[in-house]
What does this fold into?
Amino acid sequence: MSKSVQPIDVFARDLPRETRDAVLSSVMTRVAGRKAKLEEDYGDPDALRRLAGEVKQHTLEHLDEYLEQAEAALLKNGAKVHFASTAEDAREQVLAILNENGSKRVVKSKSMVTEEIHLNDYLEKNGVECVETDLGEFIIQIDEDTPSHIVQPIIHKNRRQVAESFEEHGLGEYNDDPQTITRRARKHLREKYLQSDAGMTGANFVSAESGRLVVVTNEGNARFGMAANGLHIALVGIEKVVPRDKDLGLFLNLLGRSATAQQLTVYTQFIKGPRSAEQPSGPEQMHVIFLDNGRSKVLASKERDILRCIRCGACLNVCPVYRQTSGHGYRAVYGGPVGAVLSPLLAGDDFPKYADLPKASSLCGACNEVCPVNIPIPELLLRLRSRANQEGIKSAGSPPMAPFAKLATSPKLWRTAMTASKAMNHLPITMMPVKPLQAWLKIRTLPKWSGGEFRRWMKERGRN
Ligand code: SF4
It folds into this structure.
């Protein structure tokens, strides 16, 4: 498990080669697949991304109205609706619902918001078994690890590590064949479904118009979790609401292609409410808990665009920093470019704790180019950097800029430095003025000095 508090560059430097290779090979496959799938299927994928961004932005600007609409529709469909303003509220509400129903065994499908509020640990401490049923999340759970990617939680592991883990946890002798691993997990989890008395999910989208919850999985585990018992609890971030059912077509098409290069995620469930009298199976009770946990404050900030995010993970896959660190380097539930914006914002008063994350970016713009809802992530990162500066927050690992500022704002000092720097081409490495430069020059060659002529050129030009 990685609970490091190291600055991200130190974390990346110390990351084992095996982990880096696992992350890199996986993201490269996703990046190529996403591009091909979008270009193959749409003449102008960028126009779709812009449209999706506008729909989400519009929803955020009227979120109070759409949430009310969603609540009314869900109530009409027979669901119970709750609002949780903090992680603690949400945890308590989930436990209260389970206790009211005497539920002690929960099967859960993949959900980042439940990670965000650390639900599993809380339920375990309160005597409720909570089993992750997504294969990746299941491996994370048995390893007592944390996810390192929004869509592929075990991106940092290879199949040897997974096979070793299965052997260690009594799920069969070492065998790293992916089909064997999957079969063993399936056998184990099928029993857990049958023993369960509650199913938990998140939601990828909620239609305000109809109250439909949309849950997508590639393994069908969410539907197994709901079919096997009478209680369904869905924990949903307030930003997951979209205005109409017909908007779902746009988002589902973009989500599948951006996340996993699929036209559509394999299992896409539309859940309107608890089981009706005509339906043969499914939960008799459905509870939807809308979670705020700092989102209202983000909504009121200048960085509100980040709430458009549909958690596709595409920005992680293209980010040169994420590729070197995995999600664990970001020290928070959300990693990569989206996490570098969202984590400091959701932290509220703990902003300084994550104020270094917006610096973990080359600002190359790739994250914005792939984002299916066109979030201007580089712009948001710059805003957060500026906020950290204004608040005087010093982050570990930041290069000291004060000496450079002094040099660059004094013409006399600058001229002297420029003249002196000509000599650098001839100095041995050990005589270089600063230690980081010495380290840098061990792996690089200083370019041949070619500057210092500008002032003379300008002077001569002024005379003519
Ligand atoms: S910010 Fe955009 S690209 Fe990144 S996870 Fe969210 S929706 Fe996907």
